[in-house]
Amino acid sequence: MTITTEPGVPKSSPPGTESSALRKLLLRLHFYAGVFVGPFLLVAALTGFVYAFAPTLERLVYGNYLEAPATDHPLPASEQLRAALDGRDPSAVLSLQTAEAGGSTRVVFEDPGVGSGETTVFVDPGSGKVLGALATDSGDLPLRAWLSALHKNLHLGEVGNLYSEMAASWLGVIVLAGLYLWWTKYRRDRANGRGRLLTVDRSLTGRRSTLNWHGVVGACAAIGLIFLSITGLTWSDNAGENVKTLRTEMSWTTPKLDTTLGASPAAPAGEHAGHGAPVAPVTDGAPADPSAVDGVLAVARDQGLTGSLSATIPASAAKAWAVKETATGGDSIAVDARTMQVTDELRFADWPLAAKLSSWGIAGHMGTLFGIANQLLLGALALSLITLIVTGYWMWWQRRPRRSEGFALGTVPRRGAMRRLPWPAIGGIAVVAVAVGIFVPLLGLSLLGFLIVDMLLGLRSRRQPA
Q1: Is 449 helix (H, G, I), strand (E, B) or coil?
Q2: In 250-352, which ranges are continuous DSSP H helix?
Q3: Is 354 strand, coil or helix?
Q4: What SS3 class is residue 319?
Q5: How far apart are the C-alpha atoms of 2 and 25, rounded to whole Å?
Q6: In order along the chain (466 residues), what is the average pLDDT of each group of 10 residues?
Q7: CB-based contact 374:367 (threshold 8 Å)
Q8: Cα 339 from Cα 319, distance rounded (Å)
Q9: Cβ(315)–Cβ(289) below 8 Å
Q10: Residues 274, 295 contacting (CB under 8 angstroms)
Q11: What is the Cα–Cα distance from 159 to 161, expressed in whole angstroms?
């Protein structure tokens, strides 16, 4: 097999313009990153395409658990909770999520007998009939949990986590470099009266046609792919920790609800407060009473919380209940079940802008921000990325030498562009590369590997006869 490389630029070569040198440098980076990271991105795109439709797939697979006749008069949450208990220990109740229109109520129990540690029981809010139970993982149904792990790490643990972080780290770099290359090509072609930026030129053939499709698809999907890269890094092990540190230093962290309570309630034992819940003395370590759910939810409604609500039951009666709207960007409050008083609240409108953007970004990446349209958009982005990878490799194949002996791959872009840039530009590029490499470690390490490979190929080309 022969891998052909173009010779280095001789010292006597006339210097090109700075923009031309920068274009050639980014072309080489775009090529190497695409060739070596392409397989990682392809796997991420394929698994992401399936995961994008997880909410819809859940409705198809678990419809008998998730759907229930719509009712204007649902049973009290405490009655639905009693139906879900069905002999279970009340102290094992973790949370209750009220039903949406046409949906079921979800009651989550701690369950050491399943791998995820929790089981969710689904209840018809109108009749109180138990529709079934499923082992869930932090609220995710089995299908979504499996698809999420497949997309994140291919069910390979830490090794798989490195694959996904590598893909997310390079995706944005490859897209930005490709955008610059496509824009400069468009400007050059426009000067000749045939430039196209976002439309396919069907008159082209061969490699020029492949390049045209590659560029148009990349330009149209660029913003979405960069969004996926940034939001994907927030979940990564290495870069994700740096993102958390940065948000902490800039006071951009997501606010947390305080469920800490005082030593004793204000009202005397035996009296009633709030919505009629009795105030009883609490001993240290006493478990919370799940039957207080009606009063807690009523307080939440009075405080303006709407839609489906998730009420988290504390492990101890000396802690407040946390109630939040399940929709993205929902408000949340903490309620003392002993007095039915609100002890803390978080309004999404008061969140820092960075925290809001993070919440929207995560929901958008998961396909839950704006329903089926969000899922279709993610599916289109995944298909676009698959198209870019396939056409990228196909262009490399189309550049192969036709008369070489044996199996040959395409040539790589010519080296030497860095030497044509002025020293300030080289220094700036180096500083940016080091800074980004430190913040996104897998990007930095792999970039160093690319440079080593490039140096070795350069040494090899110099030893080859002209």
Answers
A1: helix
A2: 293-302
A3: helix
A4: strand
A5: 24
A6: 43 54 89 91 94 93 96 94 93 95 96 93 96 94 94 91 93 96 91 84 91 96 97 92 90 91 52 45 69 96 96 92 95 95 96 92 93 95 97 90 61 74 88 94 91 80 68
A7: yes
A8: 12
A9: no
A10: yes
A11: 5
